[in-house]
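Morning!

This is the sequence you dropped in the shared folder:
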Amino acid sequence: MAQDLLAAADKYALERLKVMCEEALCSQLSVENAVEIFTLADLHSAHQLKTQALDFINYHVSDILETSGWQSLVATYPELVAEAYGSLARVPCPLLGPPCKRLKKT
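The structure's back. Tokens below.
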């Protein structure tokens, strides 16, 4: 129900209702629905929800890449895939440590 209410709140510029819907959807994020919520947030300019969904996708990327939702996103919204990929590239990887210095060529 929160998804439908978010669309209506965006359409009629009901900001408080929109925030309430975003909060409800954030609490429902799962591997199965994260891509759908990410797409919904983008379509309805729900910036906080979009950020939370993207963070969730980054944290669970290996599982989410295997979902049908991800495959659908790739086919339908390639610009969102590019945004998600760019976001993932900016996530620091603690296993790699600091970047290595390049050796000077002599």
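Headline: The domain at 1-89 is CATH 1.25.40.420 (Serine Threonine Protein Phosphatase 5, Tetratricopeptide repeat).

More detail when I'm at my desk.
O.
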